[in-house]
Design a protein that fits this description.
By secondary structure, the protein is an alpha+beta fold. About 30% of the residues lie in helices and about 20% in strands. It has 2 domains: about 30 residues; about 550 residues, FAD/NAD(P)-binding domain, CATH 3.50.50.60. A hairpin with a 2-residue loop joins strand 9 and strand 10.
């Protein structure tokens, strides 16, 4: 670099001739490219916040950014948004690097408790549960897949007594996302390369086993059985997180303040009246209090929202008492934890043509991205291909299993080993996969259970807010979940035997796990054992502050107000009474925007009721 900065002849040649000046201009243009910088996010008010706001939103993720952004449209209201992390870094903006955010400084780096029926191939039987600690939350580190969930998911919510949450009641928020705010697009954008050719092979194989290739946006985004290329939350080759969608356009709006690197430790509630007074925040290495006139909205996600509620005295009475926290409201906070279990099966493929799949991200691809925002780095590779199947009911058009595909080229030296290590896989598992990767490309086929029967729980280790909560997903505690995933593997085996895919020699790697040695290879018992080894999470926790009309079985009302407490709402995936059958980013943004509408309606009517 010193040579480049010095235009004299100290490097053995000069950069003052025309060729040298052109080289310097190239470096300058690359550094000034929009793809080498991050956008103008709202500035940090950590040092000039107000004492009191009308509304305080905790968490800037998929829901929180939507809540704050939509509330800020009321110019007479002062809104404070508090985020535990900082602005996303450059790696977050580059779609192809999405898994590099796991176990980074912008991740809370949670681990589940040791599991009996999942995570067996992971260190201490503990899977990683990434959660975004960054402006935009998990939408700044996810795979940018846009999926709304199936209309029947929301109709079921209303059947449980949650008026206004049927598909008819939420559809307009998804329409707004599709047409105005997010505008999800086809990842490939008509580009053609070896990975789009690979996707076409899998599409043809899917057709051969009877799946329809879906192209209509309504089908693609709503979890219907078939194979298709997903819509992506990207714009001009860069990630479009909820922070970009809802906050960047109003970054200079004076009635919206954003505090970054502020960790909310509790909600302040008057013990006698149960009226919300504000929040306690660890900011600039000290605890402070910020007051609220109207409401606090918790959008900290399905892990941190229940943690904050319990620390504030809202949760199961026995658990609060054991922690030494005064009980303000006895509610089933942290119960009913749901997630999409994900079986990550490593597959070797393209044995005879493996050299065609080496060094895909070369200097040319890097140049294409940082100059024009296209090429492989602007996309998520084979991950934009999605298959929905229903092993339980072949006649149904609603998927119960999704297959995602992550492609790693032969001799991958950039992402594969880092992803495996950050996911907490055991060393011998990583070694096996990397040894195979020296010979062939690797595809991680994610078998995701969309509507699990099993339920978990989140509790606290102590009343120290900086102790990670106890996360026990209790994965596969209901045997039916294992049976459904077994059907998924049997479906994949049929796909691998199709005339279009079989010549490319796809093969699930054999690991010879001690726990599975007593079962005959390819028997149902063997595959259920393998499922337990590789089951982890697809990073979609939900339900820990579930919505409902019965305060004994739910935490918030259908208007998202915490039962029995005035001036406190929850708006994130934790309110889901039952997890939707698809990626949760778009539904979470919907929850945020619907919450903002309800808040505006309530306060425009001049009254607030529990």
């Amino acid at each position: 670099m010193d040579c480049l900065l010095n235009t004299t002849n100290i490097c053995g040649s000069t950069l003052t001739d025309v060729g040298g000046l052109l080289l310097l201009q190239l470096f300058h243009n690359l550094l000034q490219s929009k793809y080498a910088t991050t956008p103008d996010y709202p500035r940090d008010h950590a040092n000039d916040y107000l004492n009191t706001y009308d509304f305080i939103v905790v968490g800037s993720g998929s829901a929180g950014a939507a809540v704050a952004g939509d509330l800020a449209a009321q110019k007479n209201w002062k809104i404070l948004l508090i985020e535990a992390g900082d602005n996303p870094d450059l790696s977050s903006e580059i779609p192809h690097l999405f898994f590099s955010r796991v176990n980074s400084t912008q991740d809370f780096c949670y681990r589940v408790e040791p599991q009996k029926n999942s995570c067996r191939a992971f260190n201490n039987h503990q899977c990683a549960w990434p959660r975004g600690k960054v402006l935009g939350g998990c939408s700044a580190m996810n795979a940018m897949v846009y999926n709304q969930g199936n209309p029947q998911d929301y109709d079921y919510w209303e059947e449980l007594g949650n008026d206004g949450w049927s598909w008819k009641g939420v559809e307009k928020y998804f329409d707004r996302q599709m047409n105005e705010v997010i505008k999800p697009i086809d990842y490939d954008r008509d580009e053609k390369d070896i990975l789009t050719e690979t996707a076409e092979i899998f599409i043809k194989a899917g057709k051969e086993v009877g799946l329809n290739y879906l192209t209509e946006k309504e089908k693609v985004s709503r979890g219907y059985v078939g194979i298709y290329k997903v819509l992506g939350t990207v714009e001009d080759g860069q990630r479009k997180s909820s922070a970009k969608a809802f906050l960047v356009p109003i970054a200079k709006q004076e009635n919206l303040h954003v505090i970054k690197n502020g960790f909310v430790t509790k909600v302040l509630i008057d013990e006698a009246t149960k009226v919300t007074k504000g929040v306690e925040v660890f900011l600039n290495n000290k605890l402070i209090q910020i007051n609220v006139d109207k409401e606090v909205i918790l959008s900290a996600g399905s892990i941190n929202t229940p943690q904050i509620l319990i620390l504030s005295g809202i949760g199961p009475e026995e658990h609060l008492t054991n922690l030494g926290i005064k009980v303000i409201q006895d509610l089933p906070v942290g119960q009913h934890l749901q997630d999409h279990p994900n079986v990550m099966l490593p597959v070797a493929i393209f044995d005879s043509t493996s050299d065609n799949y080496t060094n895909l991200i070369d200097a040319n691809q890097i140049f294409k991205y940082f100059t024009h925002g296209n090429g492989l780095l602007s996309r998520i590779g084979l991950t934009n291909l999605l298959t929905y199947v229903n092993p339980k009911d072949p006649n149904s058009d609603i998927g119960e299993i999704s297959h995602n595909y992550i492609f790693y080229p032969k001799k991958d030296e950039v992402l594969l080993e880092k992803f495996l290590a950050r996911s907490n896989f055991k060393a011998n598992v990583i070694t096996k996969i990397m040894e195979q990767n020296k010979k062939t490309p690797i595809i991680l086929v994610f078998h995701t259970l969309l509507r699990p029967k099993s339920r978990g729980v989140i509790t606290l280790r102590s009343k120290n807010p900086f102790d990670h909560p106890i996360i026990d997903p209790n994965t596969h505690s209901v045997h039916e979940d294992l049976e459904t995933l077994l059907g998924s593997i049997r479906h994949l085996q049929k796909v691998f035997q199709t005339s279009v895919l079989k010549p490319h020699t796809p093969k699930i790697l054999d690991f010879d796990f001690d726990e599975c040695k007593n079962f005959a290879k390819d028997s149902n018992e063997y595959w259920i054992c393998i499922i337990k080894q590789f089951s982890a999470t697809l990073y979609h926790p939900a339900g820990t502050a579930r919505m409902g009309i019965d305060s004994k079985a739910s935490v918030v009302s259908p208007r998202l107000k915490v039962h029995g407490v005035k001036g406190l709402r929850v708006a994130d995936c934790s309110i889901m009474p039952k997890i939707v059958g698809g990626n949760t980013h778009a539904p979470c943004m919907m929850i945020g925007s619907k919450a903002a509408d309800m808040i505006i309606q309530d306060w425009s009517q001049g009254h607030y009721e529990l």
